[in-house]
Amino acid sequence: MKLTRFLFFALSAPLLFAACSGASDNKKKVTSEEMRAPSLDFSADDSLAVVTLANNYLASFAAKDYEAAADMLFKYEKDTVRELNAEERRSYLNTMRQLPNYGCKLKGIALYTNKNNRLIYMLQVSSSGSLEKEEGVMKFYLNPVLKDGQWFLTLLDMEQEGTENLFNL
């Protein structure tokens, strides 16, 4: 009986190690850039300014006043902040008006640099969902940008110059 157990473990151990070593090859390698922590270079005033912008945006969004919410959004291009053009605004409004809105909530803010940041909010799209449990929700990302001493909520655009892949941070 002891010999049978010994043979079983002796023969199954190489299979276990082979399976485990092969599984690690399939996992995504995490780079140091993706593990970067939020910056400590910003002041409490910076945090307060971004939280105030986020709260104002979400108040309009929760009230389904998408026009007012769109007025608070900007686009960051070529080291400048500009208002949304007519097409960008129309696209934003069309998208938001089509989504069910049973409430929204700020999930988090991370400030990394003047132009690469992350603001995450959740939209409850299911009447039986829960913002607290994050069930029946969609997550949206904005990019707070500091330009000339003022913070702006900008649409997160992975194609814009100088923007890093914030989805992996």
Which percent band covers the strand fraction?
A: 15-25%
Number of strand segments: 6
Gross morphology: globular
Distance between the termini: 53 Å
What average pLDDT do the residues reach?
79
Largest sheet: 6 strands, mixed
Number of helices: 4
Radius of gyration: 23 Å
Give the oligomeric state of the chains in this entry, treating copies of one chain as homo and distinct chains as hetero.
single chain
Strand order of the largest sheet: 2-1-6-5-4-3
Order of helices and strands: HHHEEHEEEE
Helix content: 25-40%
- How would you classify the helix and strand content by structural class? alpha+beta
Unreliable residue runs: 1-36
Characteristic key phrases:
169 residues, disordered N terminus, 25% strand, 6 strands, six-stranded mixed sheet
In short:
The protein is 37% helix and 25% strand. It has helices at residues 2-26, 44-62, 66-71, 86-98, and strands at residues 73-77, 80-83, 104-111, 117-124, 137-147, 150-155.
Topology:
Layout (H helix, E strand, L loop, with lengths): L1 H25 L17 H19 L3 H6 L1 E5 L2 E4 L2 H13 L5 E8 L5 E8 L12 E11 L2 E6 L14
Parallel strand pairs: 1-6
Antiparallel strand pairs: 1-2, 3-4, 4-5, 5-6
Describe this structure in words.
- The protein is an alpha+beta fold and 169 residues long.
- Helix content is 37%, strand content 25%.
- Strands 2-1-6-5-4-3 form a 6-stranded mixed β-sheet.
- The model is unreliable at 1-36 (pLDDT under 50).
